[in-house]
Design a protein that fits this description.
13 strands; alpha/beta; 9-stranded mixed beta sheet; two-stranded antiparallel sheet
Length: 223
């Protein structure tokens, strides 16, 4: 498939995006990577791609222009695929409708997570296309909490956390226990949207299971 990956922002993309490039190209995909989101506003250029992959933080000070937002919406709504990784699902204050596309994601200033570390991932729907060839596994990553989350998401993997007090932004912070979504699919217009909240840094991307999940996501979103 011909893929466009947008990178860049306040995360260690200098670590993770090269890994993403390596395994997507190894799987035979024709991949273009850009840190310039202006391409999203160019319908002619976007028409050549089968799917858009977001490994980027485009909210807050790094938000997209209205033209870029509109171009991205049109691309997905018109029937193209979208694969959204980790904090890529965060919406800018001027574009809350982004959550209608992703079905949820990080909320700047509101969401939180326990410290980065080992996360045990439960594949709750092994028959889901996103979980093909993947069993329960442990990875090094973050477990997002307090996210925006919409009805209608088809969740295929989750993780559990125990209630406790964890450091957050330099302060001890009570965090809830429970089961939290880590991967889901949904549709937006005629397009297919694949979301995983995993993928914080280069080590997270080196997980064979994570790579398989992203490859599954590309395959499903472009089918």
């Amino acid at each position: 498939m011909k893929l466009l990956a947008i990178s860049g922002g306040r995360h260690p993309y200098e670590e993770s995006t090269p890994v993403l490039e390596r395994f997507l190209k190894a799987a035979g995909h024709d991949l273009t990577i850009s840190e310039d989101a202006s391409v999203l506003a160019d319908a002619g250029k976007m028409s050549q791609y089968d799917a858009l992959v977001f490994n980027t933080q485009r909210a807050g000070d790094n938000g997209m222009t209205k033209a870029e937002q509109t171009g991205m919406t049109t691309f997905i709504k018109g029937g193209k695929g979208f694969v959204c990784i980790h904090i890529s699902g965060a919406a800018s204050e001027d574009w809350p409708e982004y959550y209608d596309i992703t079905g949820g994601g990080w909320i700047l200033g509101t969401s939180f997570h326990p410290p980065y570390g080992k996360v045990t991932v439960d594949v709750t729907n092994p028959d889901h296309a996103g979980a093909e060839g993947v069993s329960d596994f442990t990875t090094s990553d973050e477990l997002y909490m307090g996210i925006e989350y919409a009805d209608g998401n088809d969740v295929f993997m989750t993780a559990d956390s125990e209630e406790g007090t964890y450091p957050w932004r330099g302060e001890p912070t009570p965090m809830p226990g429970g089961t939290f979504p880590l991967g889901w699919t949904r549709t937006y217009g005629e397009g297919k949207v694949f979301v995983t909240l995993l993928g914080h840094n280069g080590l997270s991307f080196e997980s064979p299971e994570f790579q398989k999940i992203v490859l599954n996501g590309v395959a499903w979103a472009t089918s």
